[in-house]
Every structure is written in structure tokens, then in C-alpha cells.
Design a protein that fits this description.
6 helices, globular, alpha/beta, 43% helix
Amino acid sequence: MIISEMLKVENISTDLKAKNKPEILKELVGLVKSGNILDEEKFLKDFEQREEAGSTALENGLAIPHVRSEYIEKFTIGVATNREGVDFDSIDGKKTKVFVVIASPMKERHLHLEALAKVAAILYNSTNVEVVSNSNSKEGIIDLISKLESID
């Protein structure tokens, strides 16, 4: 799996506006609409329930909010950044700067897990998160992720 090949410009935001967890999740849902969300309210509820089960904010400014849901038709990945960072209940207590959202239909368990592992591998260190969070363009984020994947 090559994450950068799955990313589309319309699934990226270089200026996450939301400042709290519920608003962030709503904004992230907007980034995966191209996955053909069947019921946005129910899909958001699935997302919220996943987050209630345990925060998807890791360390070093990275969060990987993810959900498998019957309310999305196709596997979709989105990226949102906020240079200053926002509180997303990270395990290290630091602000989150890069959100990689993974949305999968229920039947895509293997693809979902593979994407989680790949994203974590390429973005787990603070330098990579800083580089991505400071990108000024959506195309630049795709290019950076592509370069990071080739190193991994």
C-alpha cells in the first residue's frame, strides 16, 4: 500500500479550523466525503464512538483518527494540519498538529489495518510531523508523504 497514491487534494486541509475534539471530528468527516458517505450523521457517530473507546492521538503531534463504518462506501484517507496544534487527548499530553483520517467500509478490515500501520510508520517521529504540518500546500503534503514513504 502506498498512502501518497491514495491521497487526493480534496481530502487534505492545511488549515484545520476546529479547536475541540467534537468539532475536529466533524471537520475530519468533511475530508472523507469523497468516500461516498451514506449517512453523515451516523458516520460521525461511528467516528465519535471509536474515539470514545480510546484516543487516536499518538505522540509527537500525530493523530490517526480511524473508523470502519457501514455508512461509507469506499476506503478513503484524509489529512488535516494545524501548525500550532490542538488538544486531541494525545498520549504524551502534547498538542496534535497532523491528523491522518482513515475511513473504511466494514468489509475493508485488512486495508484499514494496513493503512494504520503504514501511516504510523512514516509519521511517528516528530521531525516528519513537523515537516508535514508546516507544508503550505495540499500538493506539498502529498509530495512529502510520498518522499517519507520512499525512505520507510
